[in-house]
Design brief:
Chain lengths: ~375, ~300
């Protein structure tokens, strides 16, 4: 049985459309009093195309993941979809049955896998990591695919129409971006590789601080209402204690040891979280140099955010084969988590497939 | 080590008076927790498998609301003591069986001491005029699973098979038209026949994999879609009807509550003695068939 689990492959799909923060604000019926770009650091975010939906984002990410992997779809023992949004067709169609994972199974032919959806807000992919890790370590499966396609800019479109005041519960909806991410989790007997520690838990008394549901307005669609200040207050303090107590006394309490990838919400929030962790530990766990911040061109892509950040920073050469990563999880619910991870040669394998395309995109 | 059903609770809601998911789950989960030897703080993982829930809320997960409602490590102030992870598992009426396997894996991997799987499916939006009838009973169910030293007790083997060619046989979704969201259920009129065909193929493959004959089972615990469906399933598998638990209701499919309702019926009526073997058979959209061996 495997000692550790590791990310054997990673795939991302970033839709080509872009929406700037300036354009978002200009489209608001009631303009927020706060400067969105200044507060969050988000300049623009990817937007799904006119005929792209959740399953398209997921499918493209899975295809990329298999392009990089040594495995084929028939090798998957488990497939888990973690997207929050289930927006899958015109007229705001959102699916219940069959599951999104089942619909992907038809496209890729995962007929022998254990298949289900397992959303858990922005902690969805991490919760699935914890679950698939358990299946592998319990000897139930050899490996599993985790995928999420987040089509969330529909929330921003509704917030533009529905915000009633300059400080509105839908303000956080203006920060989201669309993306797809997929990864294959596999087992290894090498204790130096993969996830050394992983833990996610829920502080459910705060479950009503962020609610996403269908809009009750005449224009339809989906809306999200968040008490951002309260979430920030609770999540930052508890995450500092959780991450801090996990790393204290280990090599992970030194920022030179690892990259730090927090949930990507806003520049300032990531910085504040890093400071709170450092204060709790009494050491520099998170520095400007080791903190991965990806929001400028991605916005908050919810459950995919950590893995889009990882993907981008592998492509730009910041994160390399053999590097360590400290992941911090924060999500509505409130779900919190931490993971300590050592990469294998995944960055080199991703670059071998993607470098040409990435260089082309950067020079363009 | 085996994973067993330590406690089970079912709220049948026969008069249909409860119409929200949280209340349905509460009415099933409270007696389940009261009947358990464990405290709430011992529950390390809480999985909600409800597909159709209040308000079509997609964030946070419905399980987070349930965890808070049931007061399961919901108000911890730091990460040092007992804590729980809650999340949704969505997979049509296969959710409960998936949830049992998942909880067993989490326990065996050392991530939880016990786990609670719950469901409370309701239709909370108007049904579209072109829709088939939803067809399921609005019930609540809860099952607490734990680990036992004897690896031959409880769930010993799971099997899931998907028949992707039949994926369109059952679809449900919500959509917006004429300034309102409505629910749409699209079911093949021959859905029960499609399910029976999938079950026959899936069960055969499972039994071959396990190298066991169907006669080795003392009880069969199938999806409780309708009384007639359960009878047809016995015929299709060639097993004596008296071995097949039939607690199906005339007023609708027990859907996600099928497995907990059959298990509760077996426990409450003393239908299984220690050492007896049950074959769990689930079927649902996809079309997927799930099987498990349960040693009482």
């Amino acid at each position: 049985m495997a000692i550790n689990t590791f990310i054997e492959s990673l795939g991302a799909y970033i839709p080509e459309g872009r929406l700037t923060s300036k354009e978002i604000i200009e489209g608001c019926k009631v303009k927020p009093a706060i400067d969105l770009e200044e507060l969050t650091g988000i300049k623009s975010r990817p937007v799904a195309g006119e005929n792209e939906y959740v399953l398209d984002l997921s499918r493209n990410a899975v295809s990329k993941c298999f392009e990089i992997s040594r495995y084929s779809p028939e090798d998957m023992d488990m497939v888990v979809c973690t997207n929050i949004s289930r927006y899958n067709g015109p007229k705001f169609e959102a699916d219940f049955e069959p599951s999104n994972a089942m619909q992907l199974a038809k496209y890729f032919d995962f007929s022998n896998a254990i298949i289900f959806d397992q959303p858990n807000a922005c902690a969805g992919m991490f919760t699935a990591l914890d679950v698939v890790d358990a299946y592998i370590k319990a000897g139930v499966i050899r490996r599993g695919l985790i995928v999420s396609g987040e089509y969330l800019t529909c929330l921003a479109r509704n917030a533009q129409k529905e915000m009633r005041s300059s400080i509105d519960p839908q303000f956080a909806s203006l920060t989201v971006g669309d993306a797809g991410a997929a990864m294959i989790l596999d087992g290894t007997n090498d204790p130096a590789l993969g996830f050394h520690h992983m833990e996610v838990f829920t502080v459910a008394e705060h479950s009503d601080l962020c609610i996403g549901k269908v809009s009750e307005e005449d224009h339809g669609g989906f809306s999200m209402y968040a008490d951002s200040a309260r979430i920030h207050e609770v999540a930052i303090a508890m995450a500092a204690e959780h991450i801090g107590s996990t790393v204290k006394g280990t090599k992970w309490e030194h920022s030179e040891n690892h990259h730090f990838i927090m949930h990507q919400t806003a520049n300032r929030a990531i910085k504040t979280q890093g400071k709170a962790i450092n204060n709790w530990v009494g050491n520099t766990v998170c520095s400007k140099e080791n903190s991965v911040v990806n929001v400028q061109d991605r916005g908050n892509s919810a459950s995919t955010a950590h893995f889009i950040a990882l993907w981008d920073h592998i492509l730009n050469g910041t994160i390399k084969s053999g590097d360590n990563i400290l992941f911090g999880v924060q999500a509505s619910g409130i779900n919190l988590g931490v993971a300590m991870y050592t990469l294998d040669d995944l960055p080199a394998r991703i670059l071998a497939v993607e470098q040409g395309a990435y260089d082309e995109a950067v020079s363009a | 080590m085996g994973t067993r059903v330590e406690s089970v609770g079912v709220f049948a809601n026969r008069d249909g008076s409860v119409t929200n998911s949280i209340e349905l789950v509460r009415r099933a989960a409270e007696p389940c927790l009261e009947g358990s030897m464990y405290n709430r703080k011992d529950i390390g993982v809480l999985v909600s498998v409800s597909i159709y829930r209040d308000d079509y809320c997609c964030e946070p997960s419905f399980a987070n609301f349930i965890q808070n409602d049931l007061k399961i490590n919901h108000d911890i102030k730091d990460s040092s003591g007992a804590k729980s992870l809650s999340f949704d598992l969505l997979n049509g009426s296969m959710g409960f069986l998936n949830g049992c396997q998942l909880t067993g894996a989490m326990i065996r991997a050392g991530k939880a001491k016990t786990g609670l799987v719950v469901s409370g499916d309701v239709v909370d939006y108007p049904i579209n005029e072109n829709s088939s009838h939803p067809g399921f009973c609005q019930t609540g169910a809860a099952m607490l699973l734990d680990e036992v030293p004897d690896r031959d007790v409880g769930f010993t083997s799971f099997f899931f098979k998907t028949f992707l060619d039949s994926q369109e046989a059952y679809e449900s979704y919500i959509f917006f038209e004429n300034k309102r969201f409505t629910m749409m259920f699209e079911k093949d009129p021959a859905i029960e026949k499609i399910y029976l065909n999938a079950i026959t193929r899936g069960v055969t493959e499972f039994l071959e994999r396990e190298e066991i004959g169907i006669d080795s089972f003392d009880l069969i615990l199938p999806s409780q879609i309708s009384p007639g469906f359960v009878k047809s399933l016995a015929d299709a598998l060639g097993v004596e009807e008296k071995k097949v638990i039939n607690v199906a209701r005339e007023d609708g499919d027990l859907f996600n509550a099928s497995l907990p309702t059959t298990i509760a019926h077996v426990f409450e009526n003393g239908l299984a003695s220690p050492g007896q073997k049950g074959l769990i058979i689930n079927v649902g959209s996809g079309v997927q068939v799930g099987c498990a061996i349960y040693n009482f």
